[in-house]
Design goal:
5 helices, alpha+beta, eight-stranded antiparallel sheet, two-stranded antiparallel sheet
């Protein structure tokens, strides 16, 4: 009788250990599948990706009618050196599209910012936000105005009312630092001018 009780206790212990191990495994699996890494952020949308040249971007825009690209008439030069902007409008030419207006900014023939203004009649902020959280995990920054996902090279943000932005952080930060240096030089010249009186 005593041996039967010991066998039953050992069986119960084994069963408890097995249940605990299964629970631990399922928790680990659930966490790993729900926690997407921001390292896997996309470089763009619809065949247009950060880092593309101006010509490669034009070609990609031509091949995807969702953007409403009209050719070179959508291309503008921006103030400053080596800066170009492509602005597309899908509202009239691609009424089926989930996009409205889109902006693509270049510096030194490299696409460094993509801004997609999404059609609010076809998709809402919460649906896009939920989809991004499901794919890339919780944002690293969150406020009522925007949600931001980042890795070392890309920033993806969803901004209100409904704009999706992709930013090449290396180029963007370089331009910000360059602007700060120029501002500092301009401030010094201003101070020298004011001191000359």
């Amino acid at each position: 009788m005593k041996s039967n009780i010991l066998k039953s206790l050992n069986s119960i212990k084994n069963l408890i250990v097995l249940v605990i191990m299964l629970c631990a495994c399922s928790i680990c699996f659930a966490q790993s599948s729900s926690q997407k890494k921001s390292g896997d952020l996309p470089k763009g949308y619809g065949g247009v990706e950060l880092g593309m040249s101006l010509d490669a971007t034009k070609s990609a825009l031509k091949s995807n009618s969702d953007f409403g690209y009209n050719g070179d008439r959508d291309v503008s030069l921006l103030p400053g050196e080596n800066r170009v902007l492509i602005e597309t409008d899908a509202r009239d030419t691609a009424r089926w599209s989930f996009l409205e207006q889109c902006w693509f900014q270049f510096y030194d023939d490299k696409l460094y910012t993509i801004m997609l203004n999404l059609n609010k009649k076809k998709v809402d902020y919460y649906s896009v936000y939920s989809s991004l959280v499901k794919k890339y995990g919780e944002p690293v920054e969150f406020s009522p105005e925007r949600a931001v996902w980042k890795n070392d090279s890309i920033q993806l943000s969803l901004e209100r009312p409904l704009i999706l932005k992709y930013i090449d952080l290396e180029t963007f930060n370089s331009l910000v630092n360059e602007a700060m240096v120029e501002k500092t030089a301009q401030e010094q010249l201003r101070d020298e001018f004011l001191n000359s009186f």
